[in-house]
Write a structure and sequence with these properties.
single chain, about 120 residues, mainly alpha, elongated, membrane, transmembrane helix, transmembrane
């Protein structure tokens, strides 16, 4: 299946947004205020944008390799790094890195893998 660049961007944005929503619900981020969620979102959306730039994802947005893998790795690396700088009292927890990397791998690579399955006839 061919996926347009616009649709691929939308899928990736939704994936990161869902990651943020699940994370904030699991950790009661609402108690920390909306600024916390906005700062966290800025970190991971900046990572997603950087991933798209590094991978030049607009050329083959739905490919798992190398596009999806690069987008995923850069999103996680930049998102986690910026989180440590921009989110007050975020600190660094290896479990956060593992959960973020795992969730974003399954979702960012997952929709690309599904898009590469040929349609049934």
């Amino acid at each position: 299946m061919t996926v347009s660049t616009g649709r691929a961007i939308a899928y990736d944005v939704v994936v990161v947004f869902v990651f943020l929503l699940f994370g904030s619900a699991a950790h009661d981020s609402a108690a920390q205020g909306s600024g916390h969620l906005v700062a966290l979102g800025a970190c991971f959306f900046a990572g997603l944008a950087a991933g798209w730039g590094v991978a030049r994802a607009w050329r083959t947005p739905a490919r798992v390799w190398p596009t999806g893998v690069i987008v995923w790795l850069v999103t996680v690396a930049v998102g986690v790094a910026l989180r440590g700088v921009l989110v007050p009292d975020a600190g660094f927890a290896p479990t956060f890195l593992a959960v973020a990397a795992g969730f974003l791998a399954v979702t960012l690579l997952g929709w690309r893998a599904l898009a590469s399955v040929p349609p049934r006839r």
